Amino acid sequence: MTSRKTTSAAIVQCSTSNHGTTTDVLALSQSDVAVLAETFRLLGDQSRLKILLQCMRGSVAVGDIAGSLDLSQSLVSHHLRLLRGARLVRGERQAKHIFYGIADQHVSQVLQDMAVHISEDRHDD
């Protein structure tokens, strides 16, 4: 198993330099920390995470998400309302349907980075 000792400064440098952001994650306000914790809590639900992964494929209708995940449309709509409130997805109305996709590149990048991270963990064992 590979040792993963990394200093806090290295973690902050890595997270800020890779994506071109200048936010100092160690200087977040209490309010920002609360929002971040709530965002991760939302991502902790498997159904919501699966919905986000479906939305990464492009704009998708609620019915299509429900069908592919074997969930009811009302449950998917409920999860999407929460995800939209956290600015993780965006909806675009086209006639009678709303199509959902990932809100922005940051959300997509977090999901991709974590997928790579868990894949690397499996290979290190």
What is the gist of this entry?
This is Winged helix-turn-helix transcriptional regulator. It is built from 6 helices and 3 strands; from the N terminus they run αααβααββα.
Q: What strand order characterises the main sheet?
A: 1-3-2
Number of domains: 1
Total number of β-strand segments? 3
- Fraction in helix: 55-70%
Number of helices: 6
CATH class: Mainly Alpha
Q: Can you offer a commentary on this structure?
A:
The protein is mostly helical. The protein has a single domain (about 30-125), classed as Arc Repressor Mutant, subunit A. About 60% of the residues lie in helices and about 10% in strands. The protein contains six helices and three strands. The chain has helices at about 10-15, 30-45, 45-55, 60-70, 75-85, 105-125; strands at about 60, 90-95, 95-100. Strands 1-3-2 form a three-stranded antiparallel beta sheet. A hairpin with a 2-residue loop joins strand 2 and strand 3 (about 95-100). Helix 3 (about 45-55) packs across helix 5 and helix 4 (about 60-70) crosses helix 5. The longest helix has 20 residues, at about 105-125.
